[in-house]
Amino acid sequence: MNDFTDKLLKAFPNGLKASDGGTIELTDKKKLLKVVERVRKNFDILFMLTVVDRPPNFELNYVFSKYEGRDILILRTLIKHEESIDSITNLFPSADWEEREAYDLFGIKFDGHPNLKRILLPEDWPGHPLRKDFVVTDEIKNWTGLDLKF
Amino acid sequence: MNNEDLSSEFSYPGLGEIIITNAEKFIDAVLNWGRSNSLWPLTFGTSCCAIEMMTFGATKVDADRLGTLFIGDSPRQADLIFVSGTITKKMARRLVNVYQQMPSPKYVIAVGACNVSGGLYWDSYNTIHGIDRIMPVDVYIPGCPPKPEEFLDAVKVLQRLIKEKKTKEDLLYGRRS
């Protein structure tokens, strides 16, 4: 794994840097697709995509793994709240639902995603609930999305 | 007491009126007796309360002896819906959709703390805090999850409510045709 990490860091000297715990940090988010295309030569699976809200940034962790062997690779990138990022659905089809979930709960826009809509919550839901600035008010608790009279 | 007071207090209905009102009462009583003793449920299980609902239909706590036959889960043939499990806001529309497909008269039993008041998810942004916000509920079964015996009790209570014409169906929509 270390060999591959070194090769990856040498291939992108401007966009990547090593971070703590064996993570690779992507400093230039425009190079995401090129980096992921390179990663795909060695890793088969997009294991998960996790998002952490660290205001004013979102921290995205792309975790890649393999069918054979125990290697994992964590690619980390920081984007601003109002920024958008490229979708990697063309390279890893399993990113489809992961990115929809990130859009649903955090409101991150993914450019080039084929079907970017909410996956867990109803489509007319007000707000993005896992953001730090989201407050659970009585209005949201009582929201049903139904027009009922009784 | 004068004869005039008697006549003003006490009016004599005609014979036809007596027969019609008594016949209506008799027919209602017979219908309600029939309805209360053959409640076919629709099982709407979304989480752990559904496991207790399965035990309710199984041998030891037998639902069939009260006429509650678990015959096929179709809303078109159901009189009663057991809503057992947490209802999220996305599921609420599906639940109301299923409920609206049931023929009237229809009765609702809310099973478990989540459906009574929100329960464990009282502070959540994504659950319905008590399904009486979205549909009329006749009987509540508290517990997290409730015992299967409490389902028997709830069905007995519902049968009594139907015979006494005190269900939400009667109170909200009045006389059924």
Strand content of chain A: 25-35%
The largest beta-sheet of chain B arranges its strands as 1-2-3-4
Radius of gyration of chain A: 18 Å
E-strand count of chain B: 4
The CATH architecture of chain B would be: 3-Layer(aba) Sandwich
User: Which oligomeric form is depicted?
Assistant: heterodimer
* Stretches with pLDDT under 50, minimum 5 residues of chain A: none
CATH superfamily of chain A: NADH:ubiquinone oxidoreductase Nqo5 subunit
Largest sheet of chain B: 4 strands, parallel
Radius of gyration of chain B (CA) equals: 20 Å
Give the ordered list of helices and strands of chain B: HHEHEHEHEHH
The second-level CATH architecture of chain A is 2-Layer Sandwich
Give the C-level CATH assignment of chain A.
Alpha Beta
How would you write the strand order of the largest sheet of chain A?
1-2-5-4-3
Computed structural class of chain B: alpha/beta
Largest sheet of chain A: 5 strands, mixed
How many helices of chain A? The count is 4
| Tally of discrete structural domains of chain A | 1
Question: What is the structure about, briefly put?
Answer:
Chain A is an alpha/beta fold and 150 residues long. Chain A has helices at residues 2-11, 32-39, 95-106, 138-142; strands spanning 16-18, 24-26, 45-54, 57-65, 72-80, 84-86, 109-111. Chain A has 4 helices and 7 strands; from the N terminus they run αββαββββαβα.
Please characterize this protein's 3D structure.
The complex is a heterodimer of chains A (150) and B (177). Chain A has 4 helices and 7 strands. The model of chain A has no long low-confidence stretch (mean pLDDT 88). By secondary structure, chain B is α/β, with parallel strands linked by helices. Chain B is globular, with a radius of gyration of 20 Å. The model of chain B has no long low-confidence stretch (mean pLDDT 86). At the A-B interface, helix 4 of A face helix 4 of B.
